[in-house]
Design brief:
The chain has 632 residues and is of the alpha/beta class. The chain contains 20 helices and 23 strands.
């Protein structure tokens, strides 16, 4: 290598090095030894990270532009992480469960998807390249039975229910990037390759299995885990005895690896209290599990025995990988890995935590693939002490909620009122009270009051740059402190806490407006009127910041606020998290005629009890009984 020349290597992350970012490799000698050392020491272990190789003696780049992180790989080569270059970094991959299509979606399906969408919107504001994956799990005995009950063939049934999910996601403003269906032929090729890789590793064997089987869970159950009369604790239905010739995955082979993973990576399972559950399962001793079904025809055939089909979980989990494949590339594991794997976070219900935090890592270790960075198990939404589920028949229709109250109200209530990770309840009365108080009154009314005063006294025009508001101003200080904490909350999926902090900005704005009483100051004229004009700018800038920060949760409301502040749709669509900084509103900026950004839900009383104002709903359906919801 000639002195001062530039050499780029596309190499992955070494254990202990950051998983994203770029690195500069500086040679201490003017020779090719640096390249040789890298090739020998790193090439087999590193990928997807940009490296810059330079002669240290003639290096023109200031070393102060690099982070202090350093890993010595040899006497001749040092690797330093760049704080400015982001070329080659992996996308931020967010996944929901692949929802089972035995029945149409309910609020339990919508809940984690809303959360995943909020996280993806936040990460995009952060400048991340996001791949948001959702989809449907379409194989298995339960689906075949559901289709037969409707007089349909399984594929027809899957097509209908999968379309129901995609329609609901549109209603809820779910901005996903990939929708994977496990009946897709490209997914089947990924499953076949994965199965063959694990088989060739010697981790699949054949044996008889007998025991109690839950059709709804589609898995064999340990008798000690069942309720009275051998009832499944999840579905409250009796399990049936089965004896089958199956193929098994040797999960027990990875006991030590999984123990090491859980002890070394405390962030792998979140919230942290869920980690204790997973550690307990692993410490009890991992058991090999059946990965095929001899009696189920609706599924992907086992590559080594076409008379059996692959167990639904051994199939569906791979949807997270096959979803990453661009349409124009061959469906292989290597291509899927290059497209973005591993996932940054799996958002799933706590009832399928074992599959994602124990079975899935074992499968990936066997196949030699990287593990997801985090598995987040959210809680249940309950009714009568039971989690809501399609098999239990106690669901509510999210489409009906959206039709009656709007998508922003639904998104806001479930993310703000329920601590993500904990169990929570849905109450229609509380739903209406919360969205009215927070969105219509605290935020919407604050904006309308202020715009009204601006129109009356300032010709709807900003009189000063918002940046000229003193840094000691209480509203500016509250906003700055809240936003710093909100960023951490969103990063850690603390949606409820984030919403509370954002709301506190608007709450403080209302108090400030009442205390300052700018309507009175305007009447006095002179310097008092100038102070009043500054007060209005202060409030409007605070509301603008609220709109940006809350946009991952309430995208429609946030856009309406931005339009009310004189911005365009394209201005809103080009926002980044940097726009939560104080100082965007400029002198001379003209505000349009004020319009309500969130209409209050009006309740009328009739003989049957409260109901919403008919003028506010798009379509009236059967009255819903307040109930709770859960993850499938």
């Amino acid at each position: 290598m000639m002195s001062g020349s530039l050499h780029i290597l596309q190499l992955p992350c070494l254990p202990g090095l950051p998983s994203r970012g770029s690195f500069t490799i500086c040679s201490t000698r003017r020779s090719n030894k640096a390249i040789n050392a890298i090739s020998a020491a790193l090439l087999k272990n590193l990928t997807g990270v940009r490296f810059r190789v330079e002669d240290a003696k003639h290096c023109k780049t200031s070393q102060t532009s690099f982070a202090s992180f350093r890993a010595q790989c040899s006497n001749e080569v040092s690797i330093e992480r760049s704080t400015v270059e982001t070329v080659g970094k992996k996308p931020f991959v967010i996944t929901t469960p692949l929802y089972y299509v035995n029945a149409p979606p309910h609020m339990g399906s919508a809940y984690p998807t809303i959360a995943a969408d909020a996280l993806s919107r936040f990460q995009r504001l952060q400048g991340e390249k996001v791949i948001f994956v959702t989809g449907t799990d379409e194989h298995g005995e339960k689906i075949a039975l559901s289709a037969a009950a409707k007089g349909r063939v399984p594929k027809e049934h899957c097509d209908i229910i999968s379309e129901d999910y995609q329609s609901l996601w549109k209603d809820l403003d779910i901005n996903y990037d990939r929708f994977i269906r496990t009946t897709d032929s490209r997914h089947e090729k990924i499953v076949d390759e994965f199965y063959q890789r694990v088989h060739d590793k010697g981790d699949i064997y054949r044996a008889d299995y007998e025991g109690l089987y839950c059709i709804n869970c589609e898995e064999f159950k340990e008798e000690k885990d069942l309720l009275e009369d051998h009832c499944c604790p999840v579905h409250r239905k009796p399990c049936e005895f089965r004896k089958e010739d199956n193929f098994f995955f040797a999960l027990s082979k990875y006991q030590k690896e999984l123990e090491a993973l859980l002890s070394s990576d405390l962030e792998f399972v979140q919230p942290s209290f869920r980690m204790n559950e997973v550690i307990g399962w692993v410490k009890d001793g991992l058991r090999d599990f059946s990965i095929s079904r001899a009696a189920v025809e609706w599924g992907i055939p086992v590559p080594t025995d076409s008379k059996q089909t692959i167990y639904v979980w051994f199939d569906a989990l791979l949807g997270y990988i096959s979803a990453l494949l661009p349409e124009d590339v061959e469906p292989t594991l290597d291509n899927a890995f290059s497209a973005g794997w591993p996932a940054s976070v799996h958002i799933i219900g706590k009832d399928i935590l074992r599959f994602h935090a124990v079975y899935w890592p074992g499968m990936l270790l066997s196949a030699g693939l990287p593990l997801p960075k985090m598995v987040f198990g959210h809680g249940f939404l309950t009714k009568d002490g039971l989690k809501m589920g399609k098999s239990l028949g106690n669901t509510i229709e999210p489409k009906d909620l959206v039709s009656r109250f709007g998508s922003d109200a639904v998104r806001y209530y479930f993310l703000k009122e329920i601590e993500f990770g904990r169990d929570g309840d849905y109450s229609e009365d509380r739903f209406i009270n919360i969205v009215n108080a927070n969105l219509a009154n605290t935020i919407g009314n604050l904006l309308n009051r202020t715009l009204g005063l601006l129109k009356k006294n300032c010709d709807s025009t900003i009189g000063i740059d918002s940046l000229s508001v003193s840094s000691d101003n209480p509203i500016r200080r509250v906003a700055s402190e809240a936003i710093a904490a909100v960023k951490e909350d969103f990063t850690c999926l603390r949606f409820s806490s984030a919403c509370e902090k954002i709301l506190s900005i608007a709450t403080s704005g209302n108090v400030y407006l009442d205390e300052r009483a700018p309507w009175s100051l305007f009447k006095r004229g002179g310097s008092d009127a100038a102070e009043a004009a500054q007060d209005l700018v202060t409030i409007l800038e605070a509301v603008r910041i609220v709109a940006v920060a809350l946009s991952p949760v309430t995208p429609q409301l946030s856009e309406k606020i931005y339009l009310q502040l004189g911005y365009s749709n394209s201005d809103f669509m080009s926002l980044s998290w940097e726009d939560t900084r104080w100082g965007a509103l400029k002198e001379g900026q003209k505000m349009p005629e004020g319009q309500p950004v969130f209409k209050k839900i009006e309740i009328q009383m009739d003989a049957d009890g409260p109901k919403e104002n008919p003028s506010q709903k798009k379509k009236k359906k059967n009255k819903l009984v307040p109930q709770s919801v859960s993850q499938v």
